[in-house]
Amino acid sequence: MARKLIITIARQYGSGGREIGEKLSAALGIPVYDKELITEAANMSELHPDVLHKVDEVAANSLLYTLAMGSNVFGSAMSFGYKMPVNDKLFLLQSDVIREYAAKGSCIIIGRCADYVLRDEPNLFRIFIHGDIDCRKARVAERHPDIKSTQVIDIINKTDKRRASYYNFYTGNKWGKYDNYDLMINSSTLGIDETVTFLAAYAKSMMAE
Fold this sequence. Notes:
Strand order of the largest sheet: 2-3-1-4-5
Strand content: 5-15%
Number of domains: 1
Distance between the termini: 8 Å
CATH topology: Rossmann fold
Number of helices: 11
Helix content: 40-55%
Number of strands: 5
Low-confidence stretches: 62-82
Structural class: alpha/beta
């Protein structure tokens, strides 16, 4: 039996991180979770999935302060009239979902600070996928043909900034900093499929007993 392995993938926008995660899932025969985390979080709360999608991987500004003050955000803080932002609710709900999925067995989780949420998981493989800017621009332009070419780089920069702010805020660590991950790989060097082949071989060696 293969050893349990939880793979987390953080990614620059346009690097192909989600596609790599999906293809790696198929290569390893283990589930991958991305947008499913939002659906499951909605099922655990009274919030509509559309509301949660709007704040997915977007930082709020209150949770860490509340925790630092020693309040239980679902308990005492509420009793004093504290209204938790939807962003914070989603982060907490998704963190619970991530832990539940990780407890079930080997899987791949994309984004959502999963590397931090599962930092005490002994069978964790943390990946950060980046790419050359020209390759990322081409991928984003192909994915969104309705976007003007002059706007592509702006969208890439804004998305990366949003992901970095989200990660930095909720973890206290720095998004994309090498020592927060076990492996950083440039998907532009090998291309998507060969990157998957490389990661699959790497992961299989870790799962072997």
